[in-house]
């Protein structure tokens, strides 16, 4: 965004103002927007008013109307102070109930600003189209406070650009129409305390045709096969769709690219004329013929220079590209390794450095940078979405990015990545699965694979071939804000759920990756991020996330490395290192960031485990390494990181990497190794043959079939911890009183990483809440969120409580979070459970401390974060499906016990790992004799390799033991019970039943 000119005249205002702007003689009088004399209140939508906003509660500025003798206009100015750490500013919205304003007759908007000469950049946005000021497109410009005293800032409407990094709602038309304006917003500088004063916002000048008429091209890039003819469509567009009142001419001429005129193409030139009276939307075409020469060649470019008179010219001249042809790497019949070797041998150091770079799509404000820096990848961070947020918009956006790669010599496609960690969770209307902790609770590897397959199909159908999932961390402390991203606390459980890798990728040899329903998977976060110690983080206010994992080599191997070994065996295509540090006892290195641990990435992952995919860094992780930027690049690349996620610093990274290689501080062999790994996956994905989105599967996004998989996953994830008096399942004939903060909130039940990074409460996406599911199941339900409605006359109560969404270290306990229910939820539990028999459902990413209320609760369910299909929860509440889930993590009695995990020497939880009652019609009966028989049978099954039979026998013994234990869970019961579940998952069925028998005897 370029800074607008700051215009001034020699006149002084009242002898006080050093600067003012002259009005052209034929301009209409300015039209006031804000005089700040009190005519506009401090208020917010739907009323008209001025209001503040910010990223945190302490970020909004403080506003006031100050009486000033030096006010440029009137007697008062808008003044304020600010101290912004993230983002913040203020807005003037017009009343939502009134009509939008028409600014199209004016040249631009201007205002007085009291400069502090602090060098701060101030963004000024205007709001165009839509239903109201908070549902409109944002168009932005900016100026710099590098002056002192009052100055009038003029911004022509032609200087505003559409915001690509954020829009509050779905896009309207991406055209600054100016006929339906809803106000403006000011974003103040962050990082330092400041003050400001502003006055006299007004529309100025007369709109000239060059500001309301524009010439556009259908595409910025026009690829064509050698010998073909490119057709470039040139369109006249006007604000408000009015015909032009003056002629518009477009002079065009080819030349200046890498293609040779006369040899590779026939040069063209001429003039197109749109006469006065031409309607908006009128299109003319220019054709550029190319020629065949029979030689194998890289791609060649033919720029078409456009000179426009009478209208605004396109932001960039279009380019015709003669596609690369005849080169071995383009031959799909060749083995991938030969294609990689051929292409790698042709590339420059700069092109290789570009392939190792991944940028955030919102940071690429100059689309030409994709080719200019030869970028290998783009990503969408959490909440970084196109507008509108639809499958069609995703595909169109990614295709537009891919189109830019066509102008590079070898037309290497981008590989676009996204965090689809529980379904295509960035896409509105997609199927949102339970988070991994719920999938772990299902103990159903086949179902885990099906959830991965649904996710892959929905992701690939929007043009995205790469998913930053699954998370294979082994979560050892539920105070960690990412604990719900783990399948559980036992590496054996995590390994059993890695069927999700095949669901995402297909066959382990990568031969399915080019299918329209498969994506490249990412095993993350390597290595040990689930073991970081509480209080060890040095990132902001985080307590656990990105901290230090202290382990012995044996613990590292058995706890944290084991799932990655399995992922490599399953053919996972990429691995992402952890932000955290690893401190291995006895190695003398101390705590070292994983992105710097060459012994773990090169030595263990690539050499010992034989990982042949590529390693991608986490978001800006390179910035957490010591040394200057060049040193960080050397460290990460040297450690084995092949692609660097540098969302906003891709220019610096590519330049630095190139310089380091040319200086010999990073070897060309290492560069070639990294790039060959990246290219291998691009070839396997079929991107060279089909770089654009295959949307044939888009109709299935959010479909009934996909939601049925999510519904079953939600049902199987429900863990019945207590069920005194057989409260559950409910009968449809019962009158049920439903309360609690999470009963009717699809945002809360979906959790973090849903539409945005942190997620949010409320109706954030299409889905069914638990309450809606109960009603759809045919239940006789009355709902009172806070339990304020009378509680008399009901057969049972269901209180749905728990957490609100969070992600990563933001959700760490001690960083504004704890493991306690909110006061409102506690009050709802107390009131309902005192009045009737009750079931309490805990919707959360981790166990909640509920022991002080457990005696008053008849039934307790760990619902985890079930996703958008609350009907799955209703299925088990009403008995359509039985409760079968088991705890994937230990449920503690108190926070002082944390961390507490299966296998601990001292183990006395509220509920042990693996606990889960059932509502199956037929449950096992018997006593010690039955357990002895089950031990014999399970041992025989183990020896025979009859895994299915062995698992069924252990599960029968588990249910039998739970039936005797009831609520009498002691340490003597809990420890062998939890150990039994670990033994089951490692295939030691006889020993598992022996442990269950030990728990039975202790009960």
Tell me what you see in this structure.
By secondary structure, this protein is α/β, with parallel strands linked by helices. Helices cover 26% and strands 21% of the residues. It is built from 23 helices and 37 strands. The strands form eight sheets. Strands 1, 3, 4, 6, 9 and 12 form a six-stranded antiparallel beta sheet that branches. Strand 35, helix 18 and strand 36 (838-843) form a beta-alpha-beta unit. Helix 3 crosses helix 13 (650-662) and helix 3 (349-355) crosses helix 14 (668-684). The longest helix is centred in the last third of the chain and has 19 residues, at 947-965. It is globular, with a radius of gyration of 32 Å. The relative contact order is 0.07. Residues 1-22 have low confidence and may be disordered. One of its GO terms (biological process) is cellulose catabolic process. Residues 1-24 form the signal peptide.
């Amino acid at each position: 965004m370029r800074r607008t000119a700051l215009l001034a005249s020699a006149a002084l205002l009242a002898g006080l103002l050093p600067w003012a702007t002259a009005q052209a003689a034929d301009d209409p009088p300015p039209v006031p927007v804000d005089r700040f004399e009190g005519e506009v209140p401090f208020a917010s939508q739907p009323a008209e008013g001025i209001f503040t906003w910010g990223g945190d509660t302490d970020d909004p500025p403080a506003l006031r109307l100050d009486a000033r003798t030096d006010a440029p206009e009137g007697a008062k100015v808008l003044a304020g102070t600010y101290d912004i750490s993230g983002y913040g500013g203020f807005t003037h919205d017009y009343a939502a109930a009134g009509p939008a304003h028409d600014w199209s007759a004016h040249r631009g908007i201007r205002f007085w600003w009291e400069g502090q000469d602090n060098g701060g950049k101030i963004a000024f946005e205007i709001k165009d189209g839509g239903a109201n000021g908070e549902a409109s497109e944002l168009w932005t410009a900016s100026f710099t406070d590098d002056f002192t005293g009052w100055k009038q800032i003029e911004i022509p409407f032609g200087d505003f650009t559409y915001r690509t990094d954020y829009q509050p709602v779905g896009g309207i038309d991406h055209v600054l129409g100016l006929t339906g304006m809803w106000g403006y917003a000011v974003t103040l500088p962050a990082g330092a305390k400041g003050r400001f004063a502003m006055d006299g916002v007004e529309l100025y000048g007369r709109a000239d045709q060059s500001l309301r008429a524009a010439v556009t091209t259908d595409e910025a890039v026009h690829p064509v096969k050698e010998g073909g003819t490119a057709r470039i469509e040139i369109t006249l567009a006007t604000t408000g769709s009015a015909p032009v009142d003056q002629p518009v001419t477009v002079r065009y001429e080819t030349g200046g690219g890498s293609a040779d005129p006369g040899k590779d193409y026939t040069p063209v030139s001429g003039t197109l004329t749109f006469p006065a009276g031409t309607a908006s939307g009128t299109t003319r075409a220019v054709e550029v013929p190319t020629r065949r020469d029979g030689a194998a060649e890289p791609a060649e470019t033919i720029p078409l220079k456009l000179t426009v008179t009478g209208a605004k010219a396109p932001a960039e001249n279009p380019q015709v590209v003669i596609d690369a042809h005849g080169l071995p790497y383009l031959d799909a019949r060749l083995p991938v390794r030969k294609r990689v070797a051929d292409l790698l041998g042709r590339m420059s150091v700069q092109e290789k450095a570009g392939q190792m770079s991944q940028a955030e799509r919102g940071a690429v404000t100059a689309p030409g940078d994709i080719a200019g820096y030869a970028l290998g990848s783009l990503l969408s961070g959490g909440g970084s979405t196109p507008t509108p947020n639809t499958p069609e918009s995703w595909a169109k956006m990614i295709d537009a990015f891919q189109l830019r790669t066509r102008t590079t010599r070898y037309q290497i496609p981008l590989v676009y990545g996204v965090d689809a960690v529980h379904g295509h969770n960035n896409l509105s209307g997609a199927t949102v699965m339970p988070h991994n902790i719920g999938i772990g609770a299902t103990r159903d590897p086949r179902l885990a694979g099906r959830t991965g397959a649904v996710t892959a199909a929905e992701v690939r159908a929007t043009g995205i071939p790469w998913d930053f999932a699954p998370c294979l961390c082994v979560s050892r402390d539920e105070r960690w804000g990412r604990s719900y991203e783990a399948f559980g606390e036992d590496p054996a459980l995590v390994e059993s759920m890695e069927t999700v890798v095949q669901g995402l990728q297909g066959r382990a040899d990568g031969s399915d990756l080019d299918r329209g329903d498969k994506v490249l998977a990412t095993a993350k976060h390597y290595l040990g991020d689930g073991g970081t110690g509480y209080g060890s983080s040095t990132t902001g206010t985080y307590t656990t996330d990105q901290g230090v994992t202290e382990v012995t080599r044996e613990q590292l191997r058995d706890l944290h490395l084991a799932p990655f070994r399995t992922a490599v065996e399953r053919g996972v295509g990429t691995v992402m290192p952890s932000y955290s540090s690893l401190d291995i006892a006895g190695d003398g290195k101390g705590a070292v960031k994983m992105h710097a641990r060459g012994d773990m990435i090169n030595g263990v992952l690539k050499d010992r485990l034989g990982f042949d995919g590529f390693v991608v860094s986490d978001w800006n992780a390179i910035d957490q390494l010591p040394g200057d930027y060049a040193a960080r690049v050397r460290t990460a690349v040297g450690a084995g990181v092949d692609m660097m996620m540098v969302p906003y610093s891709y220019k610096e990274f590519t330049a630095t990497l190139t310089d380091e290689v040319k200086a010999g501080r990073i070897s060309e062999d290492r560069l070639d190794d990294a790039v060959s790994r990246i290219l291998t996956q691009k070839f396997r994905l079929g991107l060279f043959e089909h770089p654009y989105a295959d949307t044939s599967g888009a109709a299935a996004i959010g479909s009934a079939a996909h939601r049925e998989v999510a519904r079953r996953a939600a049902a199987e994830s429900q863990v019945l911890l207590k069920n005194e008096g057989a409260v559950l399942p409910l009968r449809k004939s019962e009158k049920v009183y439903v309360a609690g903060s999470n009963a009717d909130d699809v945002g809360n039940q979906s959790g973090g990483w849903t539409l945005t990074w942190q997620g949010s409460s409320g109706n954030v996406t299409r889905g069914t809440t638990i309450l809606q599911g109960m009603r759809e199941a045919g239940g006789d339900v009355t709902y009172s969120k806070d339990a304020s409605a009378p509680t008399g006359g009901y057969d049972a109560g269901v209180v749905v409580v728990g957490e609100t969404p969070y992600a990563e270290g933001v959700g760490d306990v001690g960083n504004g979070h704890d493991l306690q229910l909110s006061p409102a939820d506690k009050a709802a539990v107390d009131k309902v459970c005192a009045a009737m028999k009750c079931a309490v459902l805990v919707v959360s990413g981790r166990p909640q401390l509920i022991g002080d209320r457990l005696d008053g609760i008849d039934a307790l369910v760990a619902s985890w974060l079930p996703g958008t299909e609350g009907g799955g929860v209703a299925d088990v509440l009403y008995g359509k499906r039985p409760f079968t889930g088991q705890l994937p993590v230990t449920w503690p009695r108190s926070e002082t016990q944390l961390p507490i995990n299966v296998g601990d020497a001292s183990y006395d939880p509220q509920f042990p790992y693996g606990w889960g009652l059932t509502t199956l019609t037929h449950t096992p009966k018997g006593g010690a004799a039955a357990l002895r028989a089950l031990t014999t049978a399970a041992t025989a099954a183990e020896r025979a390799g009859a895994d299915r039979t062995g698992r069924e026998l252990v599960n029968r013994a588990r249910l039998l033991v739970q039936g005797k234990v009831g609520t009498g869970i002691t340490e003597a019961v809990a420890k062998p019970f939890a150990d039994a579940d670990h033994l089951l998952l490692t295939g030691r069925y006889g020993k598992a039943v022996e442990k269950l028998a030990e728990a039975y005897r202790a009960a």
